Structure formats: C-alpha cells, structure tokens
C-alpha cells in the first residue's frame, strides 16, 4: 500500500484541533497533556440535592474530559509515528494497516484482524 502520509497527517491534525477545542470548552489545560474539568456553576444553597447534582455534573464532565484526553493521546501517538516513519503499521503483527481502517480511524494502532487483541491489552 502506498499511503499518502500528508493526507493522514492532515486528518490527524484536524482531529487534534477538534479534540483540543472540545477540551477547552470543558476543562482547563494544566500543562502539556493534563486537563482538569472546569467546575460547574457554584451552588449558593446548602440544599443537599443541589450539591449532589453539582457534584454529579462535575463527575460527568470529568469523565468526558478523560475520554477526550485518551483520544488526544492516540492522535498525538499517530502523528509521532508519521514523524518516525512507522505510521500505518500494525503494532501487533507488523503488517500494514488497511487503508479503509485508517480512513475510518487515522489513529488506529492495529490492522482489522488484530483490533480485538489491542482492545484487550
């Protein structure tokens, strides 16, 4: 397969920009790859239900931030693989990753036949 690395690099950069934008809406960058969910609106009452809803809202936001951080890490990993010349190589078998898989997920680490092995690792 003759991969157009610039094409995949552009896809990854667009994905990274989108993830960073989403993270910026939900969290504050604490430096590097560290993000912390922004506090939800403060509660001015001592009502336990209001406080509980506030905490629940923060926890939900924090979960989304963690998922986005993982996605950002995967995109950055793929970009580093482009720079090192190892992009598009399955991390399980060393075979080339199918082009349709890379189109669907430019940060894929494995070929289709090894996706379950990566998910279980």
Your description of this structure?
- By secondary structure, this protein is mainly alpha-helical.
- It is 59% helix and 5% strand.
- The protein has helices spanning 5-26, 48-84, 99-104, 115-120; strands spanning 27-29, 35-37.
- The protein has a two-stranded antiparallel ribbon.
- Strand 1 and strand 2 form a beta hairpin.
- Helix 1 runs antiparallel to helix 2.
- 15% of the residues are buried.
Helix content: 55-70%
On the 0-100 scale, what is the average pLDDT?
Answer: 86
Number of helices: 4
List low-pLDDT spans: none
Share of residues in strands = under 5%
Radius of gyration: 19 Å
The secondary structure category is mainly alpha
For the largest sheet, list the strands in their spatial order: 1-2
Note the main sheet: 2 strands, antiparallel
Counting DSSP E segments of at least 2 residues, the number of strands comes to: 2
Task: Write down the overall geometry.
Answer: elongated
The arrangement of helices and strands along the chain is HEEHHH
Distance between the termini: 27 Å
């Amino acid at each position: 397969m003759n991969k157009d690395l610039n094409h995949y690099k552009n896809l990854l950069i667009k994905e990274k920009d989108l993830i960073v934008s989403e993270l910026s809406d939900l969290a504050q960058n604490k430096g590097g790859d560290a993000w912390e969910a922004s506090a939800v609106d403060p509660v001015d009452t001592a009502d336990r239900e209001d406080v509980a809803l506030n905490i629940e809202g923060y926890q939900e936001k924090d979960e989304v931030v963690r998922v986005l951080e993982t996605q950002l890490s995967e995109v950055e990993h793929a970009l580093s693989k482009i720079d090192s010349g190892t992009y598009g190589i399955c991390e399980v078998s060393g075979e080339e990753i199918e082009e349709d898989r890379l189109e669907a997920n430019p940060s894929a680490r494995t070929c289709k036949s090894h996706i379950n092995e990566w998910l279980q690792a």
